[in-house]
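Can you give me the bound-state structure? Components:
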Amino acid sequence: MIPGTDKPKCFCGIFGVFGSAESSMWTYYGLHALQHRGQEASGIVSRYVDSDQKTHLQIIKGEGLVSEVFDEFIKENNLLEGNAAIGHNRYSTTGSSNSRKNIQPFLVNYHNGSIAVAHNGNLTNESKLRTELINEGAIFQTTSDTEVILHLIARSKKGDQIDAVIDALNQIEGAFSLLLLTEDKLIAARDPYGFRPLCLGKKDGAYVVASETCALDIISATFVRDIEPGEVLIINNESVKTGHPKSIKLQNTQEYKKHCIFEYIYFSRPDSFIFGHSVDKVRRRLGKLLARNHPVTDPDGDKVVVISVPDSSNTAALGYASELQKMDIPAKFELGLLRSHYIGRTFIQPGQENRDMKVKIKFNVVKGIIENKTVVVVDDSIVRGTTSKKLISLIREAKPKSIHLRISSPPITHPCYYGMDFPSKNELIAHQCGEDIERINRYIGSDTLEYLSIENILESAREIEKENFCTACFSGVYPTTVDFNFKKDAHEI
Amino acid sequence: MIPGTDKPKCFCGIFGVFGSAESSMWTYYGLHALQHRGQEASGIVSRYVDSDQKTHLQIIKGEGLVSEVFDEFIKENNLLEGNAAIGHNRYSTTGSSNSRKNIQPFLVNYHNGSIAVAHNGNLTNESKLRTELINEGAIFQTTSDTEVILHLIARSKKGDQIDAVIDALNQIEGAFSLLLLTEDKLIAARDPYGFRPLCLGKKDGAYVVASETCALDIISATFVRDIEPGEVLIINNESVKTGHPKSIKLQNTQEYKKHCIFEYIYFSRPDSFIFGHSVDKVRRRLGKLLARNHPVTDPDGDKVVVISVPDSSNTAALGYASELQKMDIPAKFELGLLRSHYIGRTFIQPGQENRDMKVKIKFNVVKGIIENKTVVVVDDSIVRGTTSKKLISLIREAKPKSIHLRISSPPITHPCYYGMDFPSKNELIAHQCGEDIERINRYIGSDTLEYLSIENILESAREIEKENFCTACFSGVYPTTVDFNFKKDAHEI
Amino acid sequence: MIPGTDKPKCFCGIFGVFGSAESSMWTYYGLHALQHRGQEASGIVSRYVDSDQKTHLQIIKGEGLVSEVFDEFIKENNLLEGNAAIGHNRYSTTGSSNSRKNIQPFLVNYHNGSIAVAHNGNLTNESKLRTELINEGAIFQTTSDTEVILHLIARSKKGDQIDAVIDALNQIEGAFSLLLLTEDKLIAARDPYGFRPLCLGKKDGAYVVASETCALDIISATFVRDIEPGEVLIINNESVKTGHPKSIKLQNTQEYKKHCIFEYIYFSRPDSFIFGHSVDKVRRRLGKLLARNHPVTDPDGDKVVVISVPDSSNTAALGYASELQKMDIPAKFELGLLRSHYIGRTFIQPGQENRDMKVKIKFNVVKGIIENKTVVVVDDSIVRGTTSKKLISLIREAKPKSIHLRISSPPITHPCYYGMDFPSKNELIAHQCGEDIERINRYIGSDTLEYLSIENILESAREIEKENFCTACFSGVYPTTVDFNFKKDAHEI
Amino acid sequence: MIPGTDKPKCFCGIFGVFGSAESSMWTYYGLHALQHRGQEASGIVSRYVDSDQKTHLQIIKGEGLVSEVFDEFIKENNLLEGNAAIGHNRYSTTGSSNSRKNIQPFLVNYHNGSIAVAHNGNLTNESKLRTELINEGAIFQTTSDTEVILHLIARSKKGDQIDAVIDALNQIEGAFSLLLLTEDKLIAARDPYGFRPLCLGKKDGAYVVASETCALDIISATFVRDIEPGEVLIINNESVKTGHPKSIKLQNTQEYKKHCIFEYIYFSRPDSFIFGHSVDKVRRRLGKLLARNHPVTDPDGDKVVVISVPDSSNTAALGYASELQKMDIPAKFELGLLRSHYIGRTFIQPGQENRDMKVKIKFNVVKGIIENKTVVVVDDSIVRGTTSKKLISLIREAKPKSIHLRISSPPITHPCYYGMDFPSKNELIAHQCGEDIERINRYIGSDTLEYLSIENILESAREIEKENFCTACFSGVYPTTVDFNFKKDAHEI
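Here's the bound-state model for the whole set.
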């Protein structure tokens, strides 16, 4: 969980370049643009050829934001050289003494030389594969499922490196958007269901791969296309020359995709295009649907004030307000909650006060906007409900007529096995309250509370086929086999 | 200047408490709420009485944000004890090796014991007073005008401490909102023109004084009233008991006040009430006036897209958009520019690129909102114009039909001597371009550029009398005598 | 007290240069050489003339060792420019929230421009002077007696700057070795009794002043002479040209000097010459006297093993061993106690063990040297006795026949008012035990314990006149009037 | 190389405990005592059994001194729990971006659960083994030879864990003193030649293993015996109960041992017993032999002054001086060079001076001791010769009659493949000068220079058989097969 918020976490963002002398710098900027996908650790591996024509992979990685990890190297003009690079932003479990090992990219040496990997997603058959590998004599140095992929490649019977990679990827199940950097190529792969986004771009002849298009934009790269679900794309000097990277399909490629709907709801940046659509537009449509299904009117005919929980719900709130207007309900979008820029990731509260000052320091309520108004608060999701409860109470201090909480997604009731991090099922407020929305409403303290239903949400995906989305966290219907006994961090080293 | 932006800086924010065992903690929270008024240094002085009934003033201060300065003390449960405290957030000139000395509050010892001071504003007769004091044998340890006040108090012939303070305050000219903490009282004072805001609140019987009401709100204190221009308020144990702090008027109290209009335009937090009005409401009215005076329509009858430069212009942009609608011009407010939360105060750009990546990392353009649209960008002010130029160029990449920059204040042409920090006159774009708005427009690269005029702006102050505002930075008309030869940081020690 | 030891602390070391473009760098090295005189804070002020021929004094100071304070500036090639500089190493009271203010040099502005001061010593009439100054309207920003000197200079009625300095110095009493840097000169002064050392050197035409000659040596400056007790030396461009700095005598200059004998016993570096003699030689002579007065023999005719408590007692221990040999007592100097280089100033002991691991980590006993031997441990002084007790117990674990502790100074029974820091009288083991050496011996756990007497110690000063030393900490006989009610850190701000 | 010195580096120190609830704390202290064997990184792995009787291995490791790595955990009372632990001090190649991975202990997961390893030494057949393992599908995450050992254990066909460890150790060649911590035992092993020391101790029923006895002493453990060359000792709960750990011999155990003679000359702490002897005594005997073979007399019959390069040569210098006396040559040991305590591992030199100030800051010459004397400087070894040259030049400034450098070891001419780090052969002064001592003397600038010969040095090993020492760095005679093409850090990842 992001400290001080009540949002699920995405495991990571990945970025890669092949064919430019500025590879590391582009990767650095790309990771900046993907910072929202992981804030706790970051790393870059670059491939460079020394004056003796020997190829090396070199790495910088560390805990913290992109700027915290790389700034000392940039200051000393010491960012990694080379004409190819991959990078990774990570959400790491803080506090674990082993966590540092799990920072990606991983860089290892095996019979085909050095190889590095950056992975966004989660393998669902990791436990089985890990056990098999260990029984064959493998040693594991991390608790990450990503290490499994490297072992599978190293142990593949296929002689050719690409064949070995395909062999390994055909064995893994679950969600993976993956970058592999070897001594002579960049390999980008996406699982057969396409759970997580991954896109291809070009700049100055070089190929660029990124979790989201916003990372192409920051370096002014041109968007080419999405990496397809089940596609393995091999980019090497030849590809750069011809402009035709080799594309291979994984065995298990599916007819229906299973894109993570939460990427639209919360994870991806509004200025990105993913799964073929503008995040901003989809998110706005969710807001509109929410208005259409759960409108609010003022008892006295005054304008309803629609505010968002900044910044992630801004777009949905704008959509909600404009749809109300279209429905001829007097309403206006307002900035009634302001988010402080100064509070960092840590906040230490002095004294023994039981008021939670953190929410109060983070969010400022503009009383003049709220007072004596019918207020709609639009948020994108509720996980534990604790922050929502505090926010509603904070807004209540500004004396509105009433507060109506509208959530632009369905109640979250099930864990995700494809790369989102939720608290345990028992901590989910929707699970706790037996999916009884009125009970949740009473807990949170809003006057009314409404969610979008799964049907609503897929309706918003009108143009894109509904079958192509994973909604497991709302429905419990998992598109792949899942080992339910499997705890993500079970295999402590 | 705030790094990476093009805004003037306010010199500081102040906060004080008398009469609560939680004084330091409240001050700590108050400074959090006033963080926007100064981000480079922070300090708290508390007054505590030890077990021998001896009174001490003790201090913590340092460079950095409020949390950076105080967190180590809070962690060790070591925030200052005592039943009174004053605090200060400061914008300090970075890089100066002397800067640390200038962090406030100042705490000194003189014939009436210990005294601490926290000051927001700027004295216009400092140079003269400093020279006189030095000639009388005073030694100066800082380059701050605030030290002058302490010397005047210490050298006053008046026997009584309050009389001496009044004597000192009657000698200083310019802008001052001031807190003094002595061994037995808290003194709050505001200059006769009332340039900077200062308000009085109460909580649990204790008195609270703050630059803005948002700092009362964070600790749930009740707003009592503004400290009046020219008022000196003395709060001691007696005041707490009776509920009647003693109030004294300074000699030079004016009929017309000279409130800083920039507090409404940019400095103060939207959720504050200052000079008797809601900042949010005034700021929105500026946006509306801007629309009324400088509307934009789409040549094809499409909706005009109104975006703000987040976050300081959000309110004005909302006002602009709603006013256009009222004028039946098709328009909508959109979040077309997003501000990154992850970029801190420092950003080190790698390589020799001449593109300014900082603006690109800080602001994300949502292409889908901008593309092929007539776009109005609302900003609150332009100082050097460099950031505006970069922003317009960034927005231009998203291919709008046209970009119309609208500024919710007049062109800045003159320096401020009352507590705002601008670059030198020659760096002001409006001065450089000889106040020729079309030249500024060409420099910045917008299709059209319009400002509010001084008349417009005072019009928005309809309800509050126009004579009560200082507009010197726009007009060059200074309400007090100013020593124009005086350079703010001239007296290096 | 130095953490983990049981030694008094010297208040500081000072260093100054006039006439070289390398002034700051020399001062930096000089402070390195004087690091033993103060490890908790350090500062340098330089005087430089800018391109407009304007003179500035600029400052860097901070907490920590010399390298900790200056390394970041050196890295960025940013040490202070200028052709004159003064520096100061300080022992600051840790933990005090006001301590940072007390770091020297102090740099202030007064009617004659900027002036900086660095002071080694302690004023005995500070309290009286401070009260007078405060009553005249002075404000005090530190708790340091050094600030008094600056006020006296600023308030002097004498028009000429040098006259004003002399006027001020004639009013202060106690111990002071002092450097003043003004906009056009360096002033070095020593109190009439000459409590603390101060010497003059030259290098490349420039003048150098330092607490000890070891600081001249590090920059390969030539030793010229000591600054005389009661002398004020004025060094300016003229002096550099003519080679004749102006020398003025203070009114109160004494016939007999009162050099601090502890400078020889412990403070000064063995490679320094102070008060006209080699510290190493005097210290060795103390060891010899100790042997002559308190020899130890082995009951079985074996060689007595003489070890030191490294590193401060090494020289005395060498002297002790060689004197025994001269007396035909079988003896040898050995390195039976080794001091760890790796333990820094802080050591945090895990767990609740009551063994003091710090002494064990700091000192390693070489068992093979000690076992079954008659061991003499030579130390230079005992303050609280706690560390000695632990050391004896540690040595005892190596199974010697017997341990004989020999101290190359008399029992410390009285506080110092001239610049040494002791714990309170009640914590002094010699005071606690009523100066009964046998009781101290029992407390510490040695088999025998002997000190040098005051007579012994002055005997070692044969060649230099005995009357010229202050022995107040051993005898309670103070050479000047002392305000015994005065607590060094009484005037908290 | 240790910065600022000219000494070879030992790769590391190791420490382990089985059977005490204080295992981690003892290991922490043990690592403190072994700090001289590696100062750049440190780590501890402990084994603890949780409340569900599940066993875990947990780890803390990081860059820096022992105190720097562990202090934050100790402060928070958070040192690793458990009843067994191993620790490691490391000399890591600074600057390498991969270096962090190489910090030991390594902790991995394999088919027998978790296992951790701490290794002092260097494998000579690593390259061959690594290639074989890689070809079998192993992935390597570090460049350390220690990782090879873990792979060999994981891939052994032996079912039993101990058998698999023996199987692995029988395959590795070179120098290894090794600790393995598994989920139920501590395994200590030493290579068949016994290059590096390793000893066994007991405390409170628990077993303790350490590189040197000084690490037993610090926790007051009793020395039991050395782990034998070629011995593998298994310590588990059973061993603790019975007091009889199981001991197994490796296949290749040798008749003659090959103890590293440099452990006596420089590496080990003087208060340790290693290879059956007191380091202090052997080192003193080297000094005596040096005097006997290369005495110095004063031309005028004055006493020769014998000084050491502190602290590592102190003992040899004492031996040298006492032997001269025994030979009736007038001589005395003096402390003519003092070592500063304040200079840390880094020193940044300001300006462009070509004088090396570092040596001057680190070593203080006591002029009074040196001046006009015939001086013998005793040092334990010369590697590059650069520091010796600077030291001799520094001593020369104190105007001795003459300076005679005496080295208590032979000229270093060959690289070590058993755990010492030298610069490349071409940087060795003895190699550069073709082993012509007179040329070295001229380079360094001493009046005369003499070394001990290999014969001399083995003579000092009279009681211990000469055949039992490795002298490869002096003679080029390597006791094992060495792959000379092998570069220690060749396999960059």
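A couple of observations. Chain C has a mean pLDDT of 90. Chain C touches chain D through 59 residues (CB under 8 Å).
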